[in-house]
Amino acid sequence: MVLNVLFVDFYDSFTYNLVSLIRDQGQHVTIIHFDSYGEDIERFWKDLQCFDCIVLGPGPGNPENGFPDVGFMEQLFVRQVDLPVLGVCLGFQLMCKSVGCTIEQLPSIKHGQVYDVKLSSGAETAGSLFEGYPSSFKSVRYHSLHVNCKNSDVSRIVPLAFTDDEGGTVLMSVQVANKPWFGVQYHPESCCSELGGKLIENFLKITERHKQARVRASESSDLSTAQGVIRNLDQTIDKSSIYQKQDLQAQNIQIEEIPIEPCTLLALQICNLLTEPFFLMSSSTIHENRGEFSIIALPNERSTVYTHYDQVHRTLVHQWRDQRITLEGFASAAETGLSCDGVDIINQSKHEFWKTLGTFMQPKMMANNPDIPFIGGLVGVLGYEMGQFTVHDREGKLVPDAKMVYVENSVVVDYQKGVLMLISLNNKFPENARSAVMKIVQGSKPGTRLPQLPDGVEYDITMPTKESYVRAYNKSQSYLNKGDSYEVCLTTQTRVVPSKRIEPWRIFQTLICRNPAPFSSFFEFTDIKPGHSDLCLLSTSPERFLKWDADTCELRPIKGTVKKDGNTTRELATKILKTPKEFGENLMILDLIRNDLYELLDVVTVDELMSVEEYATVYQLVSVVKGHGLRQAPYSGIDLLQHSLPPGSMTGAPKRKTVELLHDEIEKELNSHISPTSARGVYSGVTGYMSCNDRGDWSVNIRCMFSYDNARTWRLGAGGAVTVLSTLEGEWQEMLTKLESALQVFQN
Ligand SMILES: C=C(O[C@@H]1C=C(C(=O)O)C=C[C@H]1O)C(=O)O
Ligand SMILES: NC(=O)CC[C@H](N)C(=O)O
């Protein structure tokens, strides 16, 4: 008998981790938001007849705030719903409040910390929520608030578990007396919690028994009506796929392999000799599993270019350097939506923009699957505001939020195999590019002279004041304390104006030598006119956002940073990175990313838990999460990409609420010297490709600089995760360290 579980989501970023635990038990889960019914409690009550139990999930906010934070969900208990209920964290607090407990500030807030949960005596008896549990087990806590039942009617509450921390004993689980209503304060669904699946299994057994009793009393509802209701209810996420997968045909690819001596300057040297435009996604450090490749993408007049402006909900489509288009014509088409020779104008939201990209790519996907990450496809940059929950408010200057270019010719260097490949999808690998490659491959070893920026240029650098940073930091702390957020990725932006324009390529070469990184990128979009770009990104990112192939995907969130200086050995860094502060920071984002994947996929694994990685200026704590079974799913990599942007490591958790707080409150004043709308722009977005052999790889836009005005001014973002364990000085210094990784090129 499959149970129908109603899951009430309070817009949390751990919802689907819990949902997956229930689905693993073979049960059907319907997810609604706590405010899906608005104020229509009667309709909600009627629909409840279709379900066998209710799970009230975790989430931001405080049940004491009432309707804005929890809707009318407390009424479940006030009206005495005749269904088993499991409340988790916020849901638990809500249930306890409804029976007279108070919700109070936790003396020592815990976000992403593992504690021993101890059962009250008798809690593990047969038929209970903790049947078969040991007397103590480890679980993760994410809460600012806790339940105080000292002044409540003790006959209504059966405490089941507690934990000890610095603030004394904290209630971890209760049952409401004589009711099948249970709750846990801890998070059974975290990847660092023990026995989470068992808790759900036990709750479902309780549900099963309850259901049987109801069936006997013939209270059960008509199954066919139930199915209709259920189908229409579950609308919290858009589950449609961007494009339908089809049977793929083999298509023509020309690949010429040339053996090479692996050297990460190779791609740079080839680009130096190229006479045509190029984009570079390059590794400047070779590691197993990241940075094994450099890709030089060669756009030409056959290349279609997509530019999306979220501020005006418009996409412009044109061919690379179409002679009919002028810079002024293009800018005015973007601004007004009025037609312009050579440009297709589509008025569409960013959501529809993804579909436009998908529709374009679908017929280009091919059955050939050479073991090469990129054979040709869309390459480009997606800004932070292309993600979910973000908005790009209208401000003075219209800037692109996304630019993607379809590229048929490329050079791919595989450092591990020691081969370079010239790849063409149109049988016409450009001769000039071939001779540039041959010159470098056959020539003498590349020199080691470090490129320098030209002498005699002054740099006007504007960064946020420490005072405004302090205010933003304090705001972040106050939201963390109130339980509105568990982690806030607070970011700053700095503007650099050189007294003379310097070629982006020259800056990039300096940057990549000073701050080598596995995901460096050079994207100067000169798609209208040579020597002119409306978007330019120079990045030395250490962080992979998302990589996929036809069946699996991988995310590598970085959270936890230690500056390298003369005294920091790897050993010391590891010690610092394994403290509760860094552990919690990383775990929260790891759990958030599992959630992002579980929204679309059934199987998600944690393949590396908090490894320490070394970079030029910092040590970082990195986890690796994989999603499996894409082949059987209706989704492709592009669905995962759309779905999981913006990167959780750049937002904090829970994602939706924290993105909102950052935009409306926290970063507004802090970055007002750059933009009045607190848009992050390219920073915090992603850069990469989707290849016609169904592979993709995207890095997070950090340790980078970008320009919207043809390299006259540059913007650099830097930030870090603020948690309750942060210190103001520590975060300020961490931000400066990250800023320095790119800013250093302008400082001598
Ligand atoms: C925000 C930045 O980096 C992010 C924040 C990190 C952290 O808080 O430790 C680490 C890597 C990135 O996910 C940045 O580099 O500007
Ligand atoms: N994870 C949660 O559900 C948190 C609940 C509540 N907002 C708190 O901070 O205590």
TrEMBL record:
Pfam families: Anth_synt_I_N (PF04715), Chorismate_bind (PF00425), GATase (PF00117). One of its GO terms (biological process) is 4-aminobenzoate biosynthetic process. This is aminodeoxychorismate synthase. CDD domains: GATase1_Anthranilate_Synthase. It is an enzyme of class 2 (transferase). Keywords: Folate biosynthesis, Glutamine amidotransferase, Transferase. In the C-terminal section; belongs to the anthranilate synthase component I family. It comes from Lachancea thermotolerans (strain ATCC 56472 / CBS 6340 / NRRL Y-8284) (Yeast). The keyword Transferase applies. Coiled coil: none annotated.
